[in-house]
Amino acid sequence: MNTSHIRDQFPALKTKVYGKPLVYLDNGATAQKPIKVLDVLTEMNRSLNGNVHRAVHYLSIQSTERYHRARESIRNFINASSENEIVFTAGTTGSLNLLAYSFGQTYIKPGDRVVITETEHHSNIVPWQMMCKRTGALLEVWEVDESGALDPKKLEKIFDSSGPVPKLLSLPHISNVLGLINPLEEIITIAHYYGVPVAVDGAQGIVHKKVDVQALDVDFYAFSGHKLYGPTGTGVLYGKEKFLEEMVPWQGGGDMIESVSLKKGTTYAQLPLKFEAGTANYIGVAGLGAAVEFMQELNTEALEAYEAEITKKALQELSTIEGCIVYGQPGTYYGQNYEKTPLFSMAIDGAHPSDIAQLLDRMGIAVRSGMLCAEPLLERYGQTALLRASFALYNTVEELEFFMEALKKALCMLR
Ligand SMILES: Cc1ncc(COP(=O)(O)O)c(C=O)c1O
Is residue 324 among the annotated active site residues? Predict the structure, then answer.
């Protein structure tokens, strides 16, 4: 990994904060964007802005072509079998709301069950709660143990309990609190054995792991562009074609129709447009295509090795801080190896996360503090707020060392 070459491609990293060099460690919330992405956004806004799928003029043709090219890049990136399986959304939240609505309207009836885990981001809880309210279904929770690992026996117990098997299991690839990579292959195999389709919240997963939706045999996979070095307001719902074909659309409007008649009603467009009502965020999508191409140019093995090095060093250093608990420790749980990505959510005795975060900010370091949009998991751990430092491919070992020094300084001031 040539981090200095990579850093050169991210102009935002040159920002000064209170006159100090920015150390950006809030990548779990959103990542900075490379020049390749920024250039596409600028070029399209400046000189190629025409609405997609609508006109025969040059600008519209150009932006339509780029929109299609981005879909193909993303299909290739996650190895979906068809572009019909790539639906553009506004982000992971948009993807999961689409899924909960359309899957719910199509397949769920009163009394049916849907399963999520205790480790979810609110985006993979609330849409399912809303769907259950609408349809009369029940939301069941696959609880985690103290380590944050998922016991497959507990899942089988939910599947085996009286009544019909659940209609869907939805879980995160990587929790935004724990940073642990869930053993998706094993979980999907168990779920499919029981005939339960699986949806994965890949907001954090797609950033750190190579995702091959066909090899995983996952039924749905949702992610955001802005965490993957792409533009905000972009996202993807991957879905197996057999489901997407059957599912009813969730929003109506232009572009998602085949024909509209006031007398005969409406017929819908073919996939994937059936799920893309209204003017698409085509400029953002072109930027997302560029972000994915940027990722594909990287050496994935070197990147994973580099992240593993940062993770190991950070865990070692954090373990030397008295009274510091880091949630989500890598290890073997229930016979499965749980690797950790460089995302560290911690509680430190005698210092409130937001006080620490504010002091770090004054030293130029951006970290996250609070509930991390995962209130149930924090409640599970008896916490009301955590401090989270999350690293991206452009963060350096020197930045980690600087963060550790600054953290110790902040703790000296606070306790
Ligand atoms: C695990 C997880 N799921 C879902 C989301 C929601 O993503 P977005 O706000 O981009 O829709 C996030 C964002 O932090 C996340 O970390």
Answer: no
